[in-house]
Amino acid sequence: MLEKYFQLKNHHTSLRTEIIAGITTFMTMAYILALNPTILGETGMDKNALFTATALSACLATMVMAFWAKLPFALAPGLGLNAFFAYTVVIGMGYSWQMALTAVFIEGIIFIILTAFNIREAIINSIPENLKHAISAGIGLFIAVLGLKNSGIIMGNENTLLALGDMSSHSVWVALAGLLITGILMVFRIRGALLIGIFVSALAGIPLGITHLPEKGLFSLPPAIDPIFFMFDFSKIFSFNMLIVLFTFLFVDMFDTVGTLVGVSSKAGMLDRDGGIPRAKQALFADAIGTTAGAVLGTSTVTTYVESAAGVAAGGKTGLTSFVVAILFALSLFLAPLFLLVPSAATAPALIMVGLFMMSPIQKVDLENMEEAIPVFLTIIIMPMTLSISEGIIFGMLSYVLIKIFTGKWKQVSLIMYMLSIFFILKFLL
Q1: Cα-Cα-Cα-Cα dihedral sign, residues 108, 146, 364, 184
Q2: Positive or negative, the Cα torsion across 124, 125, 127, 129?
Q3: 51 and 292 in contact (C-beta within 8 Å)?
Q4: CA dihedral in degrees (192, 196, 199, 201; nearest 10)?
Q5: Is residue 154 helix, strand or coil?
Q6: Interval 279-334: pLDDT, tens
Q7: What is the distance between the alpha carbons of residues 380 and 391, in angstroms, rounded to a whole number?
Q8: What contacts 92, CB < 8 A, 6 or more positions away?
Q9: 75, 304 in Cβ contact below 8 A?
Q10: At residue 75, what are phi and psi to the nearest 5 degrees?
């Protein structure tokens, strides 16, 4: 039944491959189950309830992606957006977390409207093909840097932008060993190499104290969601500060999602002849529905996860991959200790290898053509340097438009690109 619904044969994939891809994606993003409650808990929200809200919102949004969009992308409360929610809106600006949830809810409603009128899809279609390939490569470097930082292989330094971490750390050596094992498996084209690498690294971390086995068993009932469910405060929604908060949520989520969909689709060879993403509208609806439902459940903005690239690299091509991810998020409600025992050092090798896979579309770009190469380069380099997909897209699109204008080729730029450029400039100024 699943094979027929997701048309696995037509997509040249199999049930086994899709399941492995789904597990791989989930394992690389399961950290959000622990991290989201920690970050949002700083606002005074109930951390136990946040765990349930995180898993439920991720499951719901990813299920929509699976059965409506039929694409191998997973969704969950976005990292970065939750930090903005907690540290800027609530702690910095002094709003209550109920007020911040209200902003997220309104954002979700606006996204549903924008998606229904094809505005977000039009933005995707307006991005030049070379920039779409650049977004894929930029996301590759972005993911690789995440993996390197999460494992401690690289770290920030007062004298340099990045430096090697503590090479005597057990976490670093677990990650490096996992990277070597995963690389060797990839050379021999072993199916499920990324997933095998994660499990081997996690097992290696047990005697080193990196992987912590649960003390109270693997099974636990999900915490009640009552303390944060449907907790909205509409008393200050017409204030200027609220407008800024809403604008920021909208902007970051829109371009992070667009960037992830474009970049991963480019790598997976899903783009059509015109450079469009199949069923993009349905995919964007999954994001919008997830954000709206997530706010009701009590969590910050839900977005498409860049770690979906790990599942695509493992062979995922259909919604069956995301269906597996959704099921695992549902199971995590009852098996939280099991899913949370895998350390970041164990998932880092998969992310680093995915960074390599995501670079391949750059081969389609003529780097000798400077008017195309410069925006492509800026897109690629800004993403890992700022750890922001949206900022990379901004620099790439702005440079593309400005170069076309000053070289007398302004007619090659679409109206939407001009409108977005004005929008980006206003963002910087305001």
Answers
A1: negative
A2: positive
A3: no
A4: -140
A5: strand
A6: 889 999 999 999 999 999 999 999 999 889 999 999 999 999 999 999 999 999 99
A7: 10
A8: none
A9: yes
A10: -130, 155
Domain boundaries, the chain: 2-429
What's the chain's length in residues? 430
Retrieve residue 418's tokens.
């001009």
Q: What's the first-to-final CA gap in the chain, in angstroms?
A: 52
Phi, psi of 359 (to 5 degrees): -80, -20
Which amino acid appears at position 179 of this protein? Answer: L
Tell me which residue has tokens 């919604």.
Answer: 319
| Class of residue 339 by CB neighbours under 10 A (exposed 0-12, middle 13-18, buried 19+) | buried
Reported as a single tens digit per residue, the pLDDT across 25-76 is: 999 999 899 889 988 998 999 998 999 999 999 999 999 999 999 999 999 9
CB 264 within 8 A of CB 136: yes
Please report how the helices 389-406 and 415-429 are oriented relative to each other, as an axis angle in degrees rounded to 10. Answer: 120
Q: Using an 8 Å Cβ cutoff, are 213 and 202 in contact?
A: no
Angle at the Cα of 405 (from 361 to 272), degrees rounded to 5?
30
**Alpha helix ranges (H) inside 117-239:** 119-126, 129-151, 170-187, 193-204
Tell me the pTM: 0.83
Residues 6+ apart with CB under 8 A from 238: none
Which pair of tokens denotes residue 383?
């993403």
Q: Among 157, 136, 375, 385, which residue's Cα sits nearest to residue 271? A: 136
Rg (CA), the chain: 21
